[in-house]
Amino acid sequence: MTHQDPTIRLTVAQAIVKFISNQYSIMDGERRRFIPAAGGIFGHGNVSGFSQAFSQYSDSIPFIQGRNEQSLGHIGSGLAKATQRRQTLAVTASIGPGAMNLVTASALATVNRLPLLLLPGDTYATRRQGVVLQQLEDPSDPGLTVNDAFRPVSRFFDRITRPEQLITSLPQAFRVLANPVETGAVVLSVSQDLQSMAYDFPVELFRERDWPIRRTAPQPEEIHAIAEAIRGAEKPLIIAGGGVHYSLAQEKLQQLGEATGIPVAETFGGKGAIQHDADWFLGGLGLEGNPATNRLVAQADLILSIGTRLTDFSTGSQTMFKNPDVRFAAINIAEIDAIKQGGIAAVSDARRGIEDLLSDLEDYGVSQDWSSEIRSQKDEWRPQRAAALDPDTVFDKNAPEHADLNIPDTDAVLTQGQLIGLMQEHSQSGDVVIAAAGGPPGDLLKVWDATEGRHAHLEFGFSCMGYEIPAGIGVRLANPEEEKRVSVFIGDGTFLMNPTEILTAAQEGLKVTYVVSENHGFQVIRRLQMMKFGEQFGNDFRYRGHDEQGRLSGDYLQVGLENIGEGLGAKVIRATSAEEVRTALDETRSHEGPVMIVVPTVPLVDLPGSEVFWDVAPAEVSEQEWVSPLRTEYEEGLRDQRWHV
Predict the structure, then answer these.
(1) pLDDT of 436 strictly over 60
(2) CB-CB neighbours of 475 under 10 Å
(3) pLDDT 10s digits, 29-62
(4) What is the CATH number of the domain that holds 61?
(5) What is the dihedral of CA 296, 302, 304, 305, to 10 degrees?
């Protein structure tokens, strides 16, 4: 900028809002507003700056009034995931607790590599006011504020203390948002007094700008090395992750499977990567995957991971790969993920990498023996899955096979698996089901059919309780076609943690369906607790008992979930039987606004196990005699744990 360049006088907050309203993402020639809307809650730390700016530019950026700052961040992440990282929200918050409410949302976005723009207010830059409301005082660092908590959970953090800093900081922020390797939460922490300060900004700063989401091409020799490794393997297997979705590589992956017969398993993020069922399609893998997939993974002598971080849920804490000759390869846009497991690494956009691999494997097909083994395992799993989901089978809690569960008396007649079966019956092409924490995402990974246009939006990178309800709003914003259903599948434990954005869905007139599995507690953690500790403690929703210990051991809490939903503006139905659930789903598909269907489900009844170990250690010493055998079992499981370097 020179002194002769035209300028425009704006406040810092106005400059930020005007800038973000003119930024666009470009992917495969498709241009979208990068920040199509904003959200926030105003307090003294942003009300005179950002509220005025968003009001002034409300024609360009619609403003969503949320109930909780964390939830607004989750709406942005839900939108980003549903648009393959091409759009997200800007979220503003006041200093202090408002800003801190965004820290969890920041971590979720960063862990999942989802773009999210956060604009928390910060304490005064001038400091002449003395200690201000909600300010943290650090005697060793006057410049430190609570907003420094964003640094480890964001991919770009800048504290704005001078207006001219925006000239370089804003482009850098959007560079990170658009970079598939670096993307995550971007935090511009703006001092409270600075937001209202005026400055002569260069007009050029506010021109429309396109940010390409680039497709990194692989090195030919890296792809050829992977192809040669596949040719040399007897039992190759592909693990598909979220990168397949973000790069829009689903069709190419389908072509690879059809051409070669290499079996494809899916992570949480990769669920739905294969859109048409085939003999070689395995479904979910890992701790919450189906046992047939996991048995095949254990046999594989070459694992090719595509677009996945390979967390411990996908690797069984590094115990799943049991073939002594197993080798690894990876196609990933991020080198940090491509080199995991010490295998052959191709740093590449997933679609570009699959395209080149498909060409290199033009005349390749897996052996008949491997194909036969795949079909055999799938054939064994198929009736187990069908039986677990069949909603018309009467569940007998007194059957001998359930004797050890001590299933309590409730009004539930359906299991959670049967509820999923009913949702599956109702699901149509274009519908999206969302889950993030507790039992629902694991159950959906194991049994949900996300083919033929049905989509599963599973956030399990951060496994964040409280993500689901606001994320449903983000997914609906990304999918405005009202004939397509956006459903949030959530347990009562997670529902009670963060239900309030149902009111936001009602306020915005958004069609989002919330299916609540009422099983009286944090049941998936109770299951883990029983496996690793051997006693239920603090997970059932029970009244305080009157025994000597005074534990939470009384009757189940009486929680009016329906009253909560009605109070927040949803159309609420309590459905107990299979027919009632069917009717509720059918009759509410076209309802304008949020719908909440509460379904009592039988506690303590799980889907078939995955047969996979997870490294969660029972106590090494304990006065409780039942803990010692669990520790022994755990140590036996560790024997399968291997380094892959």
Answers:
(1) yes
(2) 26
(3) 999 999 999 999 999 999 999 999 999 999 999 9
(4) 3.40.50.970
(5) 60
Would the pLDDT of 548 be above 80? no
**DSSP per-residue letters across 290-333:** -HHHHHHHHH-SEEEEES----HHHHTTTTS---TT-EEEEEES
- Final residue before a domain boundary, out of 153, 177, 212: 212
The dihedral built from the CA positions of residue 349, 352, 355 and 360, taken in this order, carries a sign that is negative
Give me the long-range contacts of 440-443 (CB less than 8 A, separation at least 24). 440/416, 440/468, 440/489, 440/490, 440/491, 440/517, 441/268, 441/288, 442/287, 442/288, 442/524, 443/288, 443/416, 443/417, 443/607
Judge if 399 and 513 occupy the same domain: yes
What's residue 131's pLDDT?
85
Same domain, 187 and 57: yes
- Number of other CB atoms surrounding residue 322 within 10 Å: 14
Q: Reply yes or no on whether the pLDDT at 381 is more than 90.
A: yes
438 pLDDT exceeds 80?
Answer: yes
Residues 356 and 400 in one domain: no
CA distances from 62 to 13, 21, 195, 379, 472 (A): 16, 10, 20, 51, 18
Q: How far apart are CA 11 and CA 199, in angstroms?
A: 6
Beta-bridge partner residues of 332: 347
**CA gap 500, 205 in Å, rounded:** 38
Q: Give the least confident one: 40-54, 127-141, 529-543.
A: 127-141
In a domain, 225, yes or no: yes
Total number of domains constituting the chain:
3
**pLDDT at res. 465:** 94
Residue 285, helix vs strand vs coil: coil
User: Who's near 75: CB < 8 A, 6+ residues apart?
Assistant: 39, 64, 66, 89, 470, 471, 473, 474, 477, 501, 504
Give CA–CA dist 295/318, Å, rounded.
Answer: 14
pLDDT at residue 141, as a whole number: 87
Q: How confident is the model at residue 295 (pLDDT cuts 50, 70, 90)?
A: very high
pLDDT at 127: 85
pLDDT digits (tens, 9 = 90+) for 341-351: 999 999 999 99
Residue 609 resides in a domain: no
Quote the pLDDT of residue 400. Answer: 84
Q: How many CB atoms lie within 10 A of CB 131?
A: 11
The sign one gets for the Cα dihedral 522, 527, 532, 536 is: positive
Q: How far is CA 608 from the centre of its chain?
A: 23
Bridge partners of 515, per DSSP, are 489, 597
Instruction: Spell out the residues 6+ positions from residue 372 whose beta carbon is closer than 8 angstroms to its own.
Output: none
- Residue 309 maps to which CATH number? 3.40.50.1220
Does the pTM surpass 0.85? The reply is yes
> What residues pair up with 64 in beta bridges, in sequence order?
39
**pLDDT above 60 (res 2):** no
Closest CA to 643 of 237, 216, 328: 328
**Helix 250-260 with 350-360: angle, nearest 10 deg:** 20
Average the pLDDT over 310-320 and give the result: 95
DSSP letter for each residue of 39-91:
EE---TTTTTTHHHHHHHTTTTS-EEE-S-HHHHHHHHHHHHHHTTTS--EEE
Which of residues 166, 187, 212 is at a domain's end?
212
483 and 508 both lie in a single domain: yes
* Domain limits for position 401: 393-520+556-600
Q: In this predicted structure, what is the pLDDT of residue 397?
A: 83
pLDDT at 1: 52
